[in-house]
Write a structure and sequence with these properties.
The protein is an all-alpha fold. The chain has 21 helices and no strands. Helix 2 packs parallel to helix 8 and helix 6 packs parallel to helix 9. The longest helix is centred in the middle third of the chain and has 42 residues. It is globular, with a radius of gyration of 23 Å. Keywords: Cell membrane, Membrane, Transmembrane, Transmembrane helix.
Amino acid sequence: MEEAVVEEQTAQEKMIRGSAWMTAGSIFSRVLGAIYIIPWMAWMGGQAELANGLFAKGYNPYSLFLVIATAGVPSAIAKQISYYNALDEYQTGRKLFKKGMILMVITGIICFLAMYLLAPIMGVGNPDEIKVIRSLSWALLIIPGMSLIRGYFQGYQEMAPSAISQLIEQFARIIFMLAATFLIMKVWHGEMVDAVTASTFAAFIGAIFSLAALGYYWLRQKDRMDVLAAGSLNQIEISTNQILVEMVKESIPFVVIGSGITFFQLIDQYTFEKIVLATSKITSDEAKTLFALFAFNANKLIMITISIAVAMAVTSIPLITEAFTKNLGKEVRKQISTNIQLFSFIMFPAAIGMAIVAEPLYTLFYKHSDLGTTILQLSSCMSIILGLFTVLSALLQSLNQNRYAIFCLIVGIGVKGAVQYPLVSMFQAQGALYATIFGFTVSCAMMLVSLQKLTHFHVKFVLKRLLLIVIMTVIMALVTIVVREACYLFISPMDRGLALVVMLLSAGVGGFAYMYLTLKTRLADRLLGDKVAGLRRRLKIK
């Protein structure tokens, strides 16, 4: 019994430590990816909104090709290596990695050629969109193999290499992007399209630096992994064909589920402007600007919070798979329950807090806009359901419920498609977000019901924890609103510098209030571990 308790604690510590690394890496990466917008848009001048829309139209098909190119193999590798490592079959995991790398190189080349050659179709004949899409295609030659190495590390519960390489990738990408944009727009007085094209090509530059960072970690970890491989039981005989079949079988669901949010975004990309132009009197440029407001501007900011869910999902897959493989039903239930609670513990205050400070936040990154603020508020709330979808789909896949996870996504896409036209025609930009919320809500509801039936995790216990989190989030929200309104008595939110002051004060006080409540109620201890007690002592909270 004592050994089981220790094993449960170790698994939870692994999940928390892994989540911390992946969350930190994802958040800092997303924050960097949002901060660059301030100078980037300033250098674009009056064409900033159109540049944002063009950027988004390139990245949406690129995101889909990227998922296809990696074929879900990195996540599948993490899951499969974790599975074989649990059986002390380290050599089998190595075979999977080697065959997976061959597969990644081939799919990377194929997807690069497909995206480059099909750019005229994806860009609907628009020469500007074609240039941007083709500039992004080059990254497909590197990212699949790079992602596979990240998956290999994650299979060993080593999350630091992935997180740090992600940061390095973002640093390199942003430095190249800003330097190229400044030279084109300010020094050479070039065209906006050329600046956007150079900015999207930065994905290729970032991938090169990330691959170099992973190579460094590979050399550092090689001796330890060689020792583990030397102690492999080698009782499982599996042929090359079996490895490839197993890889593809495991990968296909990751491709489909991993493309979930992208599918919804593509529906918006290819239908939104047409619906708006057909049902209103706005111009084509105004429709493109509306699209940029929610598809790029707001989306760029909410991805900071959604990255939390992505990080947790990536961390949970190998750990829950390992417990499921060993038939540790109690541990599986506990980890699923903890995962949902951790998600809510972080996501609720982050999303609601962003919605409350949406006005100064939007002003800081873009410019003051009542419509932009409204869309960011709605998008912030939507990020909760998008993040939940990411976590729940990962949990289902960890339990080998791949087909049902895909079915839930298809139903959600169907709902989105069914309500898209009426909602967009009535509410325009907000309507597209409402349609996305409806679609993902249906998917998440189906997934939650399935998880409960499969694992019988304690719903009442989770609901009690969620109620406590909601209460603390509401208190935090009230505190944040009071501070924000107090700031508005003396500070105008329409100025970018002053908006930063309002945002920092409001978010800072609200965040401290939430932290105080979680420490006071000991909820942070239960979800994050005993180390949190040290923080409480330093803050003198009893």
